[in-house]
Specification:
- The chain is α/β, with parallel strands linked by helices and 498 residues long.
- It contains 15 helices and 19 strands.
- The chain has helices at residues 18-37, 54-66, 87-92, 115-120, 123-136, 151-171, 192-198, 208-216, 220-233, 247-267, 288-295, 306-318, 431-441, 455-465, 478-497; strands at residues 5-11, 44-47, 70-77, 97-101, 142-145, 174-178, 202-206, 235-236, 271-273, 299-301, 326-335, 342-346, 361-364, 376-379, 385-394, 399-409, 422-427, 446-450, 468-472.
- The strands form four sheets. A six-stranded antiparallel β-barrel has the order 11-12-17-16-15-18. It has a five-stranded parallel beta sheet with strand order 2-1-3-4-5, with helices on both faces. Strands 7-6-9-10 form a four-stranded parallel beta sheet, with helices on both faces.
- Strand 9, helix 11 and strand 10 form a beta-alpha-beta unit.
- The radius of gyration is 25 Å and the shape is elongated.
- It starts with a strand and ends with a helix.
- The model has no long low-confidence stretch (mean pLDDT 96).
């Protein structure tokens, strides 16, 4: 991520003369330096020359398209830049765009203002011209208004930068499916060709026994080293430790992790799926292997759910450097008797330890499904705090993202007989409204759950990607939410025709 860049382009025109253009360039350089140093912006901000002609604009924006390190463009009109000059360049731009409506000075120098000052510092004028053309050309963009030194402005630019990182990642993402999806399940299905057209992700299948062969080739020395790492990183129960009656199961789990890792690295894949209904020659359903790979940044979806695996990966990329983890998750069951009704989220095995509140324990227990040996897994509970649960579904004509703002809480009681990783949360605005809205939207049972960032990052990603996002949070009512879905249906139908 350190190599990724946002290009900062400043618009003006020759009408103001060379001295004014030099001042524009100097002011623009100040803003770029300030944004580049801002802690909330996770990538480099790079200054480009002041653009004063249509040819210059088109050239720079085409260069942005072709630069692999450029993940997006920030545009600012310091003076007045006639927007017809931007038509060709904006029409060709394929990278995400942020329109920063700011000005170099924060306060008006009341006693010194003259017409020279007015002609030079007229972003209030120039950015309106630019915004008109963006709207006329139907360019998707984010607009941020405020002084460039304002922490709120820098945070919003940073949120958009994270969304642009996610878009850059998914455009180049490869996903490996080991087997197909769980039989007869609808929501985990989807059009993989449309996903590649719309998002760029490559979704391909590998036979589970190809993985099993790779697992069988793992050297014992590598298993020894990984088992030692397990015992150092986690509280491994005695039965799994060296000399314990289940130690061979821990070694089998380590062998699966090493085999999985080698296939993913060989294919250049950063996301994957498996399913307990197709395990081939594997001795266990991968548990700790999946959890550890997710903790390193891989995307994962259980039961062949490749859409959620994509979502987990891109949200992990967007969360890079932030506190709080991101994990594959599932809404499992409710605590309706709580003062504020709660959801217990978990999965059979595969919840990422990046969201653990404490050092995970490494345990082994029967699974009950999958017809294989007992799998090894990490067990822990997520800490309290705000979080976001996001699901992706294929509606046939388009993809839809649905997000719920939630508040993770401590479980009311211990869970001594639930040997899986879990999180307990209170959905906003309340469980009844949240669940009714989620169901009405067709939201999936698998989600990507993050404690690292909030809804604005996902809103920015959806805008960049051109896909639908509906959000459930404070202020949501089921009546308004249903109406929003109806209007969205019309909008996306018409947008597809256009």
């Amino acid at each position: 991520m350190q190599a990724k860049q946002l290009w900062f382009v400043t618009g003006s025109q020759h009408l103001y003369g060379p001295e004014a253009i030099e001042q524009v360039a100097a002011n623009s350089a100040d803003i770029v330096a300030g944004l580049d140093a801002a802690g909330d912006i996770p990538v480099q901000v790079v200054a480009k020359p002041v653009l004063t002609t249509a040819d210059e604009i088109r050239k720079v924006l085409l260069e942005a398209n072709g630069d692999d390190d450029c993940i997006g463009v920030i545009a600012w009109m310091h003076t007045f830049s006639p927007s017809k000059m931007w038509i060709s360049g904006l029409g060709a731009l394929s990278k995400p765009l942020l329109h920063l409506h700011t000005q170099h000075n924060r306060d008006l120098p009341w006693a010194d203002i003259d017409m020279d000052f007015m002609n030079l510092n007229q972003a209030a004028h120039g950015d309106r011209e630019f915004g008109y053309m963006l709207t006329r050309l139907r360019n998707r963009r984010k607009t941020v208004v405020g002084h460039w030194q304002d922490p709120k402005v820098q945070r919003r630019v940073g949120d958009w930068a994270r969304a642009a990182l996610g878009w850059n990642e998914v455009q180049n993402l490869k996903l490996v499916r080991f087997g197909d999806n769980m039989r007869n399940v609808g929501v985990t299905e989807g059009d993989k060709v449309e996903a590649q057209i719309r998002l760029g992700v490559e979704v391909n299948t590998w036979g589970v026994n190809d993985l099993a062969e790779r697992v069988a080739q793992v050297q014992e020395k590598a298993v020894d080293e990984l088992v030692a790492e397990y015992e150092d990183a986690y509280d491994v129960v005695p039965g799994l430790r060296a000399g314990g009656e289940r130690h061979s199961s821990l070694r089998d789990a380590a062998r699966i992790e090493l085999g999985l890792r080698s296939v993913l690295e060989e294919q250049g894949a950063k996301a994957f799926t498996d399913t307990f209904e197709d395990l081939g020659e594997l001795k266990q359903l991968p548990g700790i292997a999946v959890q550890r790979l997710m903790a390193e940044g891989y995307g994962f979806g259980g039961e062949g759910d490749w859409k959620t695996a994509v979502l987990v990966r891109l949200m992990k990329v967007m969360a890079t450097g932030l506190e709080g983890g991101t994990s594959f998750m599932e809404d499992y069951t409710y605590n309706l008797g709580a003062e504020s009704p709660q959801i217990l989220g978990a999965h059979m095995l595969e919840v990422c330890p990046s969201i653990a509140a404490e050092k995970p324990t490494c345990e082994i227990h029967p699974l009950g499904i999958g017809d294989r040996e007992d799998p090894v897994r990490l067990v822990f509970t997520a800490p309290p705090g705000p979080a976001l649960a996001v699901g992706m579904m294929d509606l046939g004509t388009r993809l839809r993202l649905v997000a719920n703002e939630v508040d993770t809480v401590e479980p009311e009681q211990d869970l001594p007989n639930l040997p899986v990783a879990r999180a307990v949360w209170e959905p906003r605005p309340d469980l009844e409204t949240s669940a009714e809205s989620w169901l009405t939207a067709g939201g999936p049972h698998h989600t990507s759950y993050t404690m690292a960032f909030g809804r604005e990052v996902m809103e920015d990603f959806a805008e960049i990607a051109g896909i639908e996002l509906v959000t459930i949070g404070e202020g949501t009512t089921t009546r308004d939410f249903k109406q929003q879905l109806r209007w969205n249906q019309v909008y996306h139908h018409l947008e597809g025709a256009l």
